[in-house]
Design brief:
The protein is α+β, with helices and mostly antiparallel strands. Helices cover 29% and strands 19% of the residues.
Length: 154
């Protein structure tokens, strides 16, 4: 964070869960970064990381700079496992996607300057860059990484 601040950059995470739930999880993880809730707002929809029921049913969802049908064609064990690890079902899991956006404030006007989605966000997960270069790669038993309090000793 010190590098960002000294380059006139601020960081805030945004999630759709209610703020109290985010704050509880933030305490569990020991995180100190700012985290805002977009609960009951259009923020995530506006940046195409959350999809409306109408978009979902049409099969035409805008995500990662293209229109796709993200509905699971069959419930694969990998998708079921990833969704379960996130605490949800496969359909709900696919209706939400990772993304990041950057904004600039100039003369009181906010400009949307950059967005990345899907695998384009991997570089932001600091451990991925290190694990992808390790001899055994990510070496996880599932497609998602474990939280710090989910590892055994070692």
């Amino acid at each position: 964070m010190v590098h960002l601040v000294n380059h006139d950059v601020a960081f805030t995470a945004v999630s759709r869960a209610p703020l109290a739930k985010l704050q509880d999880y933030k305490r569990r993880m020991g995180w100190s970064f700012p985290w805002a809730s977009s609960f009951e707002s259009d923020f995530n929809h506006d940046f195409h990381v959350t999809h409306t029921e109408r978009e979902w049913q049409s099969g035409a969802v805008e995500y990662n700079f293209r229109t796709s049908d993200l509905r699971p064609s069959e419930e694969s064990p990998g998708l079921i496992e990833m969704a379960s690890g996130a605490g949800t079902d496969p359909v709900t899991f696919r209706k939400e996607g990772p993304g990041m956006s950057a904004f600039a404030l100039e003369d009181g006007v906010v400009y949307h300057t950059y967005s990345a989605y899907g695998r384009g966000v991997d570089a932001l997960w600091g451990m991925y860059a290190w694990l992808d270069r390790a001899p055994l790669g990510r070496n996880e038993p599932s497609a998602r990484w474990r939280r710090h309090d989910e590892y055994g000793g070692g």
